[in-house]
Amino acid sequence: MAIDQEKLDQFMGRALGDIAGTFHAALVLIGEKLGLYKALAEGGPQASADLAKRTKTTERYVREWLNAQAAAGYVMYDAKTGTYSMTEEQAFTLADEASPAYLPGAFQVATAAIKARDKVESAFRTGDGVGWHEHDPDLFEGTERFFRPNYAAHLVSSWIPALEGMEAKLKQGARVADVGCGHGASTVILARAYPKSTFVGFDYHKPSVEKARQVAKRAEVADRVTFEVARAQDFPGSG
Known about the structure:
The protein is mainly alpha-helical. The chain has helices spanning about 5-35, 35-45, 50-55, 60-70, 90-95, 105-115, 115-125, 135-160, 165-170, 185-195, 205-220; strands at about 75-80, 85, 175-180, 200-205, 225-230. The strands form two sheets. The chain has a three-stranded parallel beta sheet with strand order 3-4-5, with helices on one face. It has a two-stranded antiparallel sheet with strand order 1-2. Helix 10 (about 185-195) links the parallel strand 3 and strand 4. Helix 6 packs antiparallel against helix 8.
């Protein structure tokens, strides 16, 4: 076997990057869950002990987490002062949940997909499918969290206006079906923007429909938004 060392090095570098990304996904979610990104973004340059105190966590773990984040380019490290910080871009994507570029939800989707490995492996052997409902619950939550910021930033401001005549119909009062509504993020955003219209979200995944109903109730739009369990192939909407 003749091995081209340069090509081998290039491939190994690519593979090691993928491996590092796999490990890093969990660390991103830990940082979000514990409020490490937000505390770092809001508090300015901090030592690991400072960040641990602000977040009520253990310094040793926070220090290791910060070093991994700095090595990956997710936070900044100042060797002279021994402090860590975040650039505006890093904070925009990792600490600001209202940002259209907020990323932790995507990492949640990635880790959830890995949890389905055994089921997907079995499907390779049997040829059967792996249903959306068979995935880890993190997939449903992560998908909503990944897409919601974009819906909030663009759905009403640019996507609906791009559909000729649609905005006028919604303002006047229309009946809208949101097929494959998931947790209802887009449905609720539309309902709040167009109070004269009524909306029905359909999804075959019952837990997502139940979650969507809770979201609509909290957003105080349940009077004009309902959610039903139904498949895209045969949902009962008409007109």
